[in-house]
Amino acid sequence: MKLNWAERWVVNNPLRVFQQKIEIKWLKGMRSLKPGANILEVGCGRGAGANLIFKNFQPSQLHILDLDLKMIQKARTHLSAASKDAVNMYVGDAIDLPFKTGSLDAIFGFGFLHHVPDWRQGLSEIARVLKPAGLYYIEELYPSLYQNVITKRILLHPEHDRFTSDDFRMALDEAHLRLADVFELRKMGILGVAAKDSL
Ligand SMILES: C[S@@+](CC[C@H](N)C(=O)[O-])C[C@H]1O[C@@H](n2cnc3c(N)ncnc32)[C@H](O)[C@@H]1O
Hints:
Elements: H1 5-11, H2 14-30, E1 38-42, H3 48-57, E2 61-66, H4 69-78, H5 81-84, E3 87-91, E4 104-110, H6 119-129, E5 130-141, H7 143-146, H8 151-154, H9 165-174, E6 177-185, E7 189-196
């Protein structure tokens, strides 16, 4: 689901970039990647995360995908000169990723999965396109943060079948994505890294 005006303001904001800088440092400290990895960022928004991924992980290829064409257009102008040549941009849906099974070393998802009505299918697509032992870097929010009495009047999200911490952890397990490193505020959200089973 695309963002409404209020959430666009929240994510297209310098404070959001500052938050993502700190989160990426933490994620990298938990699990780093060898330079030259093949990486996807799903729900990339205006590309602030892509710049940070590029700088911190030095991928050989960085694919960024968003449902919203306007976000991809913003990303095109927002990407740093250094990252522009290595980045492939896609308008697409997380529930049907345009990548081959087992083709990616890592996937980043900053606050996108709770926007996806069929989020379980989104997770199973992430698991499908990751290589065995590939990493899913996660930042996600829970409904008591984005659907409480105040935020549900301001923000726009799918209303049904939203995931709590328990739902999310169970679905990760069912998708063979094992949560390895995690910082979680159980009512609010999660920052973590999950590894796909290596078979
Ligand atoms: C809260 S924003 C986060 C943007 C960016 N990752 C950030 O952290 O600033 C969620 C993003 O996910 C995108 N999105 C929502 N549903 C999606 C879907 N089904 N497939 C791909 N992207 C989606 C939205 O268009 C939006 O850009």
